[in-house]
Write a structure and sequence with these properties.
Blueprint: H1 4-18, E1 20-25, E2 30-33, H2 35-41, H3 45-48, H4 63-73, E3 79-86, E4 92-103, E5 109-118, H5 120-176, H6 183-214, E6 223-225, H7 228-237, H8 239-244, E7 248-253, E8 259-261, H9 263-280, E9 284-292, E10 295-302, H10 319-322, H11 334-346, E11 349-354, E12 361-368
Parallel strand pairs: 7-9
Antiparallel strand pairs: 1-2, 1-5, 3-4, 4-5, 6-8, 9-10, 10-12, 11-12
Helix pairs in contact: 5-6, 6-11, 7-9, 9-11
Length: about 375
């Protein structure tokens, strides 16, 4: 029959063989290391004996970790923690460490026994599994984004394209009829066809440039300009829609409104806001261009039903699926998403609010008069 002493000795020898073991005196000076310790660290016993474990200290371990360790073991308690250790060649190994205070007959701590188990490979395997799972998630997100973008692209093109096809067929039928042609009506329809073609081209441009913005590949060209001619040009562009909806446009412009920014991109931003005001408003649009200290503020207000969720409309979404807007009309949100990205890059502040004294939406843009140090060249 094997005695308890023999059993304990056998267990201890097995532990010493399987684990990385060291001992120190009460001051932390190494007095013993086993062969496994030498094998994994690359140090010989002679190089380690008489030194502290600070020689294995890894910079990724915080000072708090070592402080907590000493506070624990100097009070006679066992300390357990996962630590990164530095080897002689500069590599590292991760170990589950247990430090046991050894108490002498007088009740004082005489030594510390440290038992470590190398879990470097386990941690590496878990990390690889985690990264693979993350990669799968990212691929799935990209796949879903591509699917959504394709649906969005298709929807944005179908609306004006259908109008172009249908009106063109109608015009052809009218021309083929032997009776007298209503020239004014046909010219109006041709204007509508032209407007839808321009709208479709604008949508294609915005969708393609959104990809550039997301990839941080957009190039900007800054100059000093006044936005008033841009606004007038856009009002002229949308005059057919404004006339069809019988919209009354009122304007208030200050003469000293100068902006230092990318003129073409600012025009795209204003066009987006103005287009939405025409589409979703009722019969009034009020445009104010004013200066405040070193800023130029452009406000475009409409008298439509307003916007229910003012944050969500700047995200990429399908309006018909989410019912985010209270407004009725075409559009999927790509324009405002594009606007948000442009304003971010061009350091333009924007806000969208309900009008205070009347129904509708108030969209504000704030430009700096002076060049910004943050501008991209």
């Amino acid at each position: 029959m094997i005695s308890d002493y023999s059993k304990n000795k056998h267990y201890f020898e097995a532990l010493m063989t399987a684990s990385i073991v060291s001992k120190t005196d009460s001051k932390g000076i190494i007095t013993y290391v086993n062969d496994n310790f030498c094998k994994i660290t690359g140090y010989s016993k002679e190089e380690m004996l008489g030194h502290t474990h600070a020689m294995f200290r890894h910079p990724d371990n915080s000072d708090t970790l070592y402080q907590e360790m000493w506070e624990t073991i100097t009070t006679g308690k066992i300390w357990r923690e996962r630590m990164i250790n530095l080897n002689k060649d500069g590599s590292n190994f991760i170990a589950e460490s247990t430090i046991i205070p050894l108490i002498d007959e007088e009740g004082h701590i005489s030594e510390y026994l440290a038992i470590r188990n190398d879990i470097t490979d386990i941690v590496k395997l878990k990390r690889e599994i985690f990264l693979k799972e993350q990669e799968k998630v990212e691929h799935e997100k990209i796949r879903e984004a591509q699917k959504s973008f394709l649906l969005l692209f298709t929807h944005e093109l179908k609306t004006p394209l259908n109008a172009i096809i249908n009106f063109t067929k109608y015009i052809r039928k009218q021309i083929e009829k032997p009776k007298e042609i209503d020239q004014a009506k046909l010219l109006g329809l041709l204007d509508t066809v032209s407007l839808n073609a321009v709208d479709m081209l604008d949508n294609i441009t915005i969708i393609l440039e959104t990809s550039k913005l997301n990839a941080n590949k957009m190039v900007y060209h800054y100059s000093l300009f006044t936005p008033e001619p841009l606004i007038e040009e856009l009002l002229s562009k949308y005059h057919i829609l404004i006339h069809e909806k019988n919209i009354q446009v009122t304007k208030y412009f200050t003469s000293d409104a100068l902006i230092h920014n990318d003129e073409y991109r600012v025009k795209q931003i204003i066009a987006n806001i103005l287009s939405n005001a025409i589409k979703y408003g009722n019969n009034e649009i009020h445009i104010t261009l004013s200066t405040h200290d070193d800023d130029v503020v452009l406000i475009i207000e409409d008298n439509g039903p307003g916007i229910k969720n003012k944050e969500a409309i700047f995200e990429l979404y399908a309006q018909e699926d989410t019912n985010i807007l209270e407004r009725k009309g075409q559009g999927t949100g790509i324009g405002l998403y594009f606007l948000k990205l442009l304003c971010r890059d061009l350091h333009i502040d924007y806000t969208i609010d309900d009008r205070k004294d009347a129904p509708g939406t108030k969209f504000s843009l704030c430009f700096s008069k002076n060049p910004s140090n943050k501008e991209k060249q």
